[in-house]
Model the fold of this input.
Amino acid sequence: MNTTRHNPLVRAMALAVFVFLCAQTAFAHPQKGEAVGFLTGFRHPISGLDHVLAMVAVGLWGAQLGAPAVWLLPVAFPMVMAFGGMLGLIGVPLPGIEYGIAASAILLGAAVMFEARPPLAIAAVVVAIFAIFHGHAHGTELPPGQSGLLYSMGFVIATGCLHGVGISIGTVHRWGWGQKALRLAGAVVAMGGMFFMWKAFAI
Amino acid sequence: MNLTQRQSRIPLYAAVLLVCVMSPLAAEAHLNSTGMGPIYDGLMHFLMSPEDLVPVLALALLSGLRGATYGRRTLLVLPAAWLFGGLIGLAAAASNGNAIVSAVWFLLLGGLLAADAKLSLRVTTALAALLGLYHGYLNGAGLGLNFSSAAVLLGLIFAVFVLIALAAAFVVRLQAAWARIAVRVAGSWIFASGLLLMGWAVRGVRGLKAL
Done:
């Protein structure tokens, strides 16, 4: 009986052991920077809290606004963000990037906190403007020797996944307590943005 | 054997399986040690080359969104054009891919997919033919004329065919609005990657590996 009760745990542990200890194929001859390029790009957005806050807030706001904003904003953001990245890559300067990123967290957080419902075009423009700052700041930091294409793909996919996290969390909006929780989350994002704004001014 | 006895042996089975999984195997970095040869080499080349794979995937998804007729047309035209371009490329001097042209393919196909563009069958066919000819030519030129080139090319085209068949068929079956939107989101990611690739190309950083 005792064994039966613990059986799911034993199974789970055995599975975890297999997954973690399973021998991987040796990549003896990858193209230079190929394997790490994607991972570097993927890690980049999720390693910066300012970026994470803004990305998740876009998803939360989209979930609050409902269709079609729930998919339009996350579709628009990566494209305009990449445009910002391209501007950075070809050497077009963008002043006040750190302030723009901090402001994005403040305003997007505030939009979620107050459940702002502007016309879709205005919401898209607001998100797009901030996306340019994020792209310009983060899309250009390719470590030497890595593949630009895979870095870019990893960067874009990670950003999209962060939106997905925000949208998933935002599904609680259908319940009363969920709406309050989302507003609270928006307040947290806005406060995070204020911290980054203070930091930007302090530097 | 009752249930409890059977379940109590699970840790034993787990230990045996663990030993099997962790037993060291010879590294097979070179295909001549696997005996799988150039067809497998071509197949893996395509699957490991995002500059080849992503535009094909985008076109397959786009065709799938438009319906089964479009998917079937792409399934026939793209591999055929790839083969034709590859055969021309085999006889040509060595040539490397141009990152800006690759970025344009990402932007074009990703943008069309994100916009869920209502392309005609003729335009879709033309896109498939152009994509196949361009990438096939690059692959063929990279291979050059030698004993195994044709087999590598065949493996490559087989991979292209399978990818289109799977991706287009998957999308054709999607009925839910959110699922079709998810496909369009993938298009926006491809477009965004293309924009960044364009930036890298203009800046002169290696965005493409030599084919």
Observations:
- The helical segments of chain A are 2-21, 34-47, 49-65, 69-89, 97-113, 120-138, 148-170, 176-202.
- Residues 41-202 of chain A form one domain.
- Residues 176-202 of chain A form the longest helix (27 residues).
- Chain A has one domain: 41-202.
